[in-house]
Amino acid sequence: GVARVVVAMTDPHTRNRGAGLGILRAAGIEVLCPLLESSALALNPGHARRYETGLPYVRVKLAMSLDGKTALATGESKWITGAEARRDVQRLRARSGAIVTGVQTIVDDDPALNVRADELDVEHNEISASLLRPVVVLDSALRIPAGARVLENPATIVACLEQTGNPGFEEERILRLPAGADGRVDPGALLRELAGRDVNEVLFECGATLAASVIRGGYVDEIVIYAAPVMLGADARSLLNIAKIDTMRDRIEFQINEVRRVGKDMRITCIPQRH
Questions:
Q1: CB atoms within 10 A of CB 152
Q2: Using N-to-C axis directions, what is the helix angle for 208-216 and 187-196, rounded to 10°?
Q3: In this structure, how many other beta carbons lie within 10 angstroms of the beta carbon of residue 92?
Q4: Which helix (DSSP H) or strand (DSSP E) does residue 136 occupy?
Q5: In this structure, what DSSP letter does residue 173 have?
Q6: How large is the average pLDDT for residues 240-268?
Q7: 80 to 85, 140, 167, 224: CA distances (angstroms)
Q8: DSSP H or E run through 202
Q9: Nearest residue to 131 via CA among 164, 167, 91
Q10: Other C-beta atoms lying within 10 Å of the C-beta of residue 145
Q11: Strand pairing partners for 176?
């Protein structure tokens, strides 16, 4: 029979937490737990995050030039990073339960935000059982163009304010949410809704304003920045629209977890310093 069971970590699910281990111990089986808990958490951070906080694990993906810009003043941004970096983003999309963007990104770039299976490595292709990821567009006033490519995905949801009128397309694709302090859809309300739908990890691929809102709101768990060896000039669009910070004491701090070369670009992975 089984004499010993080795477990990386206790399941954070309130219904299951330690129950199975107790049954094993009661049956006289030696249980070693936790073992390599931090490694187990790194494999599946969203599961623990959702049950511990009621929110999914939030990852923000950004791409920038060496001078911290994301697009020319005209809005042109294709492409700052190289093909290898763009393929690497497919890995982030594949592991996410939902992809979130803002309506301005849809208006400016008309992205599909789909997972392109042919650009995934074998490992991520295998773990991605379904390549059809829900895309959530934060669109307070329902400005999304009727012909937007993202709407070709039947799982796309448009999140607007509660009082917004008729969307002009299927009501079942609309998610009505309360406003945040800035009068736009509250990202926190969206994240709580997604957690309630069993979404463990969320990837934000969005513009400077929405990304800044998620960061300043304290919702972000990880930022992945792809930095390209190019410069776009002083009048180009900045990476983040962070509100004015008056003192160094109020600065937003991160810890750099990893720096890796991806083709001609660099991928920098950061996590917030939560005090």
A1: 10
A2: 80
A3: 18
A4: strand 135-138
A5: G
A6: 94
A7: 10, 28, 34, 15
A8: strand 201-204
A9: 91
A10: 12
A11: 160
Say what the alpha-carbon torsion angle 261, 109, 112, 143 is, to the nearest 10 degrees. Answer: 140
Contacts of 169-177 with CB under 8 Å at 24 or more apart are 175/136
Strands 174-177 and 157-161, sheet pairing: parallel
Q: Which residues contact 72 (CB under 8 A, 6 or more apart)?
A: 232, 233, 236, 237
Question: Please, what are the domains in the chain?
Answer: 1-43 (no CATH), 44-272 (3.40.430.10)
By the 10 Å C-beta count (0-12 exposed, 13-18 middle, 19+ buried), 170 is classed as exposed
Report the alpha-carbon angle 266-124-53, nearest 5.
80
147: tokens are: 């012909």
Q: Cβ neighbours of residue 215 under 8 Å, at least 6 residues apart?
A: 60, 223, 240, 242, 252, 272
Round to whole Å and give the CA distance between 144 and 157. Answer: 11
pLDDT in tens, 197-235: 999 999 999 999 999 999 999 999 999 999 999 999 999
Residue 154's region, left for phi above 0, alpha for psi from -120 to 50, else beta, is alpha
Q: What letter does residue 116 receive in the DSSP assignment?
A: -
Can you tell me whether residue 135 is helix, strand or coil?
strand
CA pseudo-torsion sign 194, 200, 205, 211: positive
pLDDT in tens, 130-161: 567 899 999 999 999 989 999 999 999 999 99
